[in-house]
C-alpha cells in the first residue's frame, strides 16, 4: 500500500472523528459495511476509489483537481467529461 493512499484514508478517519461521525453513520450514508469501514480506517485494506469517494461524501469532504500550471480550465474539462459519459450511458 502506498503511503499516499494511507494518508488520504487516515485524513478521512480523522475528519470523521473530529466531526463526531461514527462508522455506523458512515455506513448508513455510504452503503459500505461498518466492518469494511473499520478495515479501511485501520489501514488493513484500502478502499477502491469508488468506496473512498462514498466515504468522503458521507464525512462531508469534497475533492477537486488543480492544474499545477494553471493553464487548463478544469471546470471545462469536467463538463466535457460529464458530457462524454452521459452519451455513453
Structure summary:
By secondary structure, this protein is mostly helical.
Task: Please characterize this protein's 3D structure.
This protein has a domain at 3-59: 434 Repressor (Amino-terminal Domain), CATH 1.10.260. The chain is an all-alpha fold. It has five helices and no strands. The mean pLDDT is 89. It is globular and about 40 Å long. It has helices at residues 3-19, 23-30, 34-41, 49-59, 74-88.
The rounded distance between the terminal residues' Cα atoms is 33 Å
Report the sheet with the most strands, covering strand number, pairing sense and barrel closure: none
The DSSP helix count reads: 5
What proportion strand?
A: under 5%
Using the 3D structure, state the CATH architecture of the domain at 3-59.
Orthogonal Bundle
What is the alpha-carbon Rg in Å? 15 Å
- Unreliable segments (pLDDT under 50, ≥5 consecutive)? none
Give the integer mean of the pLDDT values: 89
Q: What would CATH call the class of the domain at 3-59?
A: Mainly Alpha
Helix content, binned percent: 55-70%
Number of strands: 0
Helix and strand string, N-terminal first? HHHHH
Shape call: globular
Predict the CATH topology of the domain at 3-59. 434 Repressor (Amino-terminal Domain)
Structural class computed from helices and strand pairing:
mainly alpha
What's the topology here?
Blueprint: H1 3-19, H2 23-30, H3 34-41, H4 49-59, H5 74-88
Name the descriptors:
0% strand, 89 residues, 434 Repressor (Amino-terminal Domain), 66% helix, mainly alpha, globular
